[in-house]
Amino acid sequence: MFGKRPDATLVTGLSTMRSFMPFISPRRNDSLVLYAQHIEADAAIAFVERYNETAPEDRKLTLFHLLVRALALTFHRRPGINRFIAGGRIWQRNDVWATFSAKVELRDRSPLVTVKRRFPEDESLEDMVGDILGRLGRRRGGEKTQSDQEMNFALRLPPFLIRMGVWLLHQANQLGALPRKMIDDDPLFTSIFIANLGSVDMESAYHHLWEYGTASHFAMMGRVSERPDGTHYFEVRYSYDERVNDGLYGGLSMQVVKDLIEHPEKLA
User: Fold this and answer.
1) Is residue 83 domain-resident?
2) According to DSSP H, which parts of 57-190 are helical?
3) CATH value at residue 68
4) Sheet of 89-93: strands edge to edge?
5) Number of separate helices (H) and strands (E) present in the chain
């Protein structure tokens, strides 16, 4: 509290303008930058096919896994994007976290589940894929997180009490008073939220940032498309809170993501 948090450290030595930006634009969606990126997919597709020739059935790789891997590595290599705003200050997150959502079943009214995990810099691609698929399988099988249980309990209350409770949690976050356990379990306290519209054969889209939590970035992956010459590409669209760092730093970081996916051997 007051300069300390369990999940981050205060960023110091910033320019006057950068330090003052949270007061000029107090909401994330007041500072939203939208960025579309085309990624050449042929090398990544070939890499996935080679990888899956020997991978166990429960550890099959997808292009989405490569995107998640590339984003996690980029957040480690470009730590200036792994930041968030709380209490009018800019914070450097202690770990790299990513949250992604998935349908329980590929049908229109199927509910969404979220998976959040920490991404250590030194973990292997195989371990990452196995852990993600394991977590996703458990979530689709009905596993409830602490966050799920808290929301289910809250929904039994009158709406005005829910609004009051969310407001109190938001204020506690601004003060850095939330416990580490609550932060680690909440899917909106994350470095980046990622969605895969390509899994339902849709183009990518831009997504807002939630004002609750600490997610400063959102990435949406679209379906793989084929050009007339037979080459393939997909698009990722980013929503980015420009207060955490300048647009050039963010743009160069996204170029790292593109380079890693287009040269997938760097992700192994």
Assistant:
1) yes
2) 63-77, 125-140, 146-154, 159-175, 180-185
3) 3.30.559.10
4) 8-10, 89-93, 83-86
5) 8, 10
Give the chain's radius of gyration (CA, Å).
19
How many domains is the chain built from? 1
Task: Please check whether residue 102 lies inside any domain of the structure.
Answer: yes
3-state secondary structure of 36: strand
- 153-190: string of b/e by CB count within 10 Å (b at 16+)? eeeeeeeeeeeeeeeebeeebeebebeeebbbbbbbbb
- Is residue 5 in a domain? no
SS3 of residue 34 by DSSP: strand
For residue 43, what are its two tokens? Answer: 């090398």
Residue 95 CB contacts under 8 Å (≥ 6 apart), including other chains: 7, 118, 119
Q: Which domain holds residue 143?
A: 28-243+255-267
pLDDT tens track, the chain, 268 positions = 567 899 999 999 999 999 999 999 999 999 999 999 999 999 999 999 999 999 998 889 999 999 999 999 999 999 999 999 999 999 999 999 999 987 666 666 667 788 999 999 999 999 999 999 998 888 888 888 888 888 888 899 999 999 999 999 999 999 999 999 999 989 999 999 999 999 888 999 999 999 999 999 999 999 999 999 999 999 999 999 999 998 889 999 999 999 999 999 999 8
Q: Is the pTM of this model over 0.90?
A: yes
**107: DSSP letter:** S
